[in-house]
Amino acid sequence: MIKTDILIVGAGPVGLFTVFEAGLLKLHCHIVDALPQPGGQLAEIYPKKPIYDIPGFASVTAGELVDNLMEQIAPFKPGFTLGERAETLDRQEDGSFIVTTSEGTKIHAPVIAIAAGLGSFEPRKPPIENIEQFEHKGVEYMIKEPEDFRDKRVVISGGGDSALDWTIHLADIAEEITLVHRRKGFRGAPDSVEKVQKLAADGRIRLVTEAQVVGLQGNGKLNEVLIHHKSEGDFTRETDFFVPLFGLTPKMGPLQDWGLDIISKEGIKVDTFDYSTNVPGVYAIGDINTYPGKLKLILCGFHEATLMCQSAFKRIHPDQKISFKYTTVNGVEGFQ
């Protein structure tokens, strides 16, 4: 079992910044996130999108912001459980909690900070009748470990940054890559589009546009996809993996069963004194929470994380006085 001071649910920018604020108070954090890498929707959906309201940056891309936050929190050595969704919350006799993930990982902490953005992200699945039959048997909605695809035949479907970036990355790993997109044009970054087109021109990948994967076949494991082309009709393609990358849909998910005061379509209700929820020891910060005057901005989430950590310290160490130091003061352990 993993033990920590603060368990942070969500590895988006607010969750990452919480590690920094907690670290200044000598509190250790562990982060759990359903996505396979830190950054939340910034990393998964729009890593190259510019952000203009982060103090000190006239403009910073979402990916750069995540990289900077990871560098900022590195001295505090947070733990990460990625690619697993926080499922159940069990309160212990001493008031602490054990959270169990979708993969059975158990994390024990006296404080839970929910920084899950718009909720857990679930993949948008293509409307293929038997797709669930092949999930984790050839159908994958996320790529957690690229080496799993080494020397394999892979069909990727999608037209955004994720589909393009993984096509480029796996071109040097997989035996065969086919990228299927229903339109001629792509939604991703022009540089990525250019790289994919060059890979296709060089014969290193197969690019099929104006087409969709409409069927899956196999005996216990996927071995063939059926592709419908706008002008050429239907044809099959042998494959070991089908990876539809159509983006993610945010949902509250299992958090709805944690006994929290949730306002439908708005989020988890909190006390703005410290962003605590109705469950003592559980806080909600960032886009997942709601209160009068709430603004769903990253910088607002940073402020909420700061106040939350002060309250968490008092809960974890009720007999200790906080000796808060500005981060410009030399000698702050873990931050030099």
Protein model, in words:
- It is built from 6 helices and 23 strands.
- It is of the alpha/beta class and 336 residues long.
- The protein has 2 domains: 2-122 and 249-316, FAD/NAD(P)-binding domain (3-Layer(bba) Sandwich), CATH 3.50.50; 125-246, 3-Layer(bba) Sandwich (FAD/NAD(P)-binding domain), CATH 3.50.50.
- The strands form 7 sheets. Strands 6-3-2-10-22 form a 5-stranded parallel β-sheet, with helices on one face. Strands 1-9-8-7 form a 4-stranded mixed β-sheet, with no helix packed on it. It has a 4-stranded parallel β-sheet with strand order 14-13-12-18, covered by helices on one side.
- Helix 5 links the parallel strand 13 and strand 14 (206-209).
- Helix 1 packs parallel to helix 3, helix 1 runs parallel beside helix 6 and helix 4 (161-170) crosses helix 5.
- It starts with a strand and ends in a 20-residue tail after the last helix.
- 38% of the residues are buried.
